[in-house]
Amino acid sequence: MSLRHALLGLLAHGPASGYDLTRAFEGGIGQYAWQAGHSRIYPELGKMTEAGLVVVDEAGPRGRKTYTLTDDGRTELRRWMLHWPEQATVRNETVLRMFLVQSLEPDDARALLEGMAEHCARERDALRAVMDADDAEHRPGDPLPFGRLAGEYGIRQYEAVQGWAQWSLERLAAGEPVR
Amino acid sequence: MSLRHALLGLLAHGPASGYDLTRAFEGGIGQYAWQAGHSRIYPELGKMTEAGLVVVDEAGPRGRKTYTLTDDGRTELRRWMLHWPEQATVRNETVLRMFLVQSLEPDDARALLEGMAEHCARERDALRAVMDADDAEHRPGDPLPFGRLAGEYGIRQYEAVQGWAQWSLERLAAGEPVR
DNA sequence: CCTTTACCTGTCAATCTGGACATGTCAATA
DNA sequence: TATTGACATGTCCAGATTGACAGGTAAAGG
């Protein structure tokens, strides 16, 4: 049910269409937090309208429908944000590979870990560059591809994984048990 | 299709039953990487048997079926581990909340971030304790609730999120724009 | 011996998801 | 004026996923 809350959260800082929201999921949120395509977003917006969490301003060119958060929607978003469950939904292919490194032969494990460390270093630098560019040319009012907080999280995330991969490589090199 | 690879990976270090695998998902892998219940695991093991990735040793008390990786299974696991796609599947409720902090009123945001920082500190300590206990009383041969590498990742993950939350709180306190 | 507690395997219905299919509009440029 | 590309909304289906339902076995303790 988190797609609903992702949409509520995105709508919290201003009205948007299904199309706008779809593009939002192509950015940071879809890369780090939650993925969704338009084929799931449109039906969900329909259900949310029925549930009274959002309303449609039926206006705009090309049949564009703009959705706005209702008070109920904002309340529900706040409720969800503030009480997190014991066991949160997690599904991450990269972390899954990290957990299964032990299933590889040492040479393969080394290759995988080295690849991961390099990949993280590259992505980290790229993200940093995007954020610095934003800082420079950003005019108040226009939307950021990355929120500041989200970007900072991304950077720390890459650094954590890179650090972990390097630590693991050292363990491997030292011949210590990987299990 | 990652459930399949998770199962292949878990089977890589020795034969196991559907029941064993179900319990494995209740541990670290289910908390940090990928979730699955027995109702999904049993059918998938069936399909994997059909596909020749695993074989069943139909033996054991209480109708227990033990699955063993075939050469094809090991090859497929290696292939999947070593070539990762551009865009990996990601779904993480906690990170989603992190991305949506900006949608809250400052007071609520502060409460959320403080809660997250505390939670991470607690979980980190608990995880460290579990790992130290394992180191102490672990006898070669019996399974670890946490692999060393996985545990280390968990700790670094908690530290990264905690650090991020604290950094965000400082920004918030300084009155800097959160967006 | 009896009862409880794991152990152990499955199915089913409802919902969620991702990719493909389908349709049409507006703006810019060649 | 024709065409392309971005804007914009939707449906459909196969497969994934979850939680509930269902049933049976061995071991251990009282």
Automatic annotation (TrEMBL), chains A, B:
<feature type="domain" description="Transcription regulator PadR N-terminal">
    <location>
        <begin position="7"/>
        <end position="78"/>
    </location>
</feature>
<dbReference type="InterPro" id="IPR005149">
    <property type="entry name" value="Tscrpt_reg_PadR_N"/>
</dbReference>
<dbReference type="Pfam" id="PF03551">
    <property type="entry name" value="PadR"/>
</dbReference>
<dbReference type="InterPro" id="IPR036390">
    <property type="entry name" value="WH_DNA-bd_sf"/>
</dbReference>
<dbReference type="InterPro" id="IPR018309">
    <property type="entry name" value="Tscrpt_reg_PadR_C"/>
</dbReference>
<dbReference type="Pfam" id="PF10400">
    <property type="entry name" value="Vir_act_alpha_C"/>
</dbReference>
<dbReference type="InterPro" id="IPR036388">
    <property type="entry name" value="WH-like_DNA-bd_sf"/>
</dbReference>
<protein>
    <submittedName>
        <fullName>PadR family transcriptional regulator</fullName>
    </submittedName>
</protein>
<feature type="domain" description="Transcription regulator PadR C-terminal">
    <location>
        <begin position="90"/>
        <end position="172"/>
    </location>
</feature>
